[in-house]
Amino acid sequence: MPTDSQRPLNAIALVCSLKRSPAESSSAVMAEHVCEQLRKHDVKTDILRCVDYSILPGVEADMGDGDEWPKIRQRVLDADILVLSTPIWLGHPSSIAQRVMERLDAELSNTDDEGRPIMFGKVAVVAVVGNEDGAHKVFADCAQGLNDIGFSFAAQANTYWTGEAMHSTDYADLAEVPEQVSNTTATAARNAAHLAGLLRGGQFPGQQ
Hints:
This is Flavodoxin. GO terms for molecular function: oxidoreductase activity. This protein is α/β, with parallel strands linked by helices. It has a single domain, classed as Flavodoxin domain (Rossmann fold, 3-Layer(aba) Sandwich). It is about 35% helix and about 20% strand. It has 5 helices and 6 strands, in the order βαβαββαβαβα. The protein has helices spanning about 25-40, 70-80, 95-105, 135-150, 180-200, and strands at about 10-15, 45-50, 80-90, 90-95, 125-130, 160. Strands 1, 2, 3, 4, 5 and 6 form a 6-stranded mixed β-sheet that branches. Helix 1 crosses helix 5 (about 180-200) and helix 3 packs parallel to helix 4 (about 135-150). The longest helix has 23 residues, at about 180-200. The protein is globular, with a radius of gyration of 17 Å.
């Protein structure tokens, strides 16, 4: 049986679209593009659309009856890399993305044997799509929250696509992904896989 250091890295992509499956979602397409690049670096990937689950409001790991967050939480705990893929709505991450981060906030009080929040050592990538400006702000909002929770970010840890203002084209409807976007996605995935491998071999120090 392979040791922990020998097993493949794995990633979970949480798609924060407001559209339930099987509706077409640009955020889901973007998540798949990130995962496609991660697989090129021997990272096993899985994609989950959060709106398909009952994620109750709150900041606890388990909010009780009817809450399906615990099963999502376990998949995040089992992963080395978290891909958070969100659309832009009214200039902000989707309400689903915000709820995911609120639920992850519970992990600040869950620590390992050395006093580290249990998300230490995990790497995050943020992917953003929308038909308006605001991708940098949305990334900043998500990255700040995820980093507070304990996730690490590699260099250039986000990828995004935004259509022209007032136009109705979706990322999922593009005949071809622009070269600048595909290159950015490849860089984000490559750097995330590299950092995740480094952190597996050398976790952050615990409390003194």
